[in-house]
Amino acid sequence: MIIPKTREEIELMRASSLLVSKTLGMIAKEIKPGVTTLYLDKLAEEFIRDHGGVPAFLGLYGFPNSLCMSPNAQVVHGIPNNKPLESGDVISVDCGVLMNEFYGDHAYSFEIGEVSPEVKRLLKVTKESLYVGIREFRAGNRVEDVGNAIQRHCESNGYGVVRELVGHGLGRKMHEDPEMPNYGKKGRGKLFVESMVVAIEPMINMGTKNIKQLKDGWTILTADMKPSAHFEHNVALIDGKPELLSTFQYIYDALGIVSDEENEFRKLPLVI
Question: Which pTM value belongs to this model?
């Protein structure tokens, strides 16, 4: 069952989402060759707690850390470790926060040092597909309208769209209805409801769509061991249109990136 939120609850969720955004922005300043994912995980936990939140992933379903850190062929749910990052790596950093009884949860895929043109293109297309999907999150549409838009954009560029892992509703629970697949047929699935909140998160592979899982019970890999990319935003349906609760702007400020990609999904300019 889809659970609509009050405007007051949406503002609480915005605060939770923005704490995730700020955490990812902090990580963006620290992530570089030679740094370990376990070190970044510790920084994130301290930052979240220092800013009034609780790391949402830590202990969730038994997950052992505060961040999911998934480099290269890892799609999602990678466990932080002591292996240093290397130039040429790409890594998805997925972060969750619980604050004011509501969750925020989003992700960004980072380039480490100099990456190949093929990896840059994968990241570009995957992030484009996130916004292509968000545009379909509007009154009168259904769940698979979003997935269909993401699927068409990515497959037309030659990439594999993961089927087994999906986005989700968000609120007082990390995972609420509806599931938000990154594939589908237009006009199919649950009808969107005013004031609902979802996490839209394309997980796109350079090669095959197929995946496998490590024996650790968490880490998901591409079946052909080619790189994967993952971007995620939290989005509310307000007055029939998608409105971002999260932002990549903190990341862009840290990395010196200029972008207006989020502007169409905000009623007011974001105050950083």
Answer: 0.97
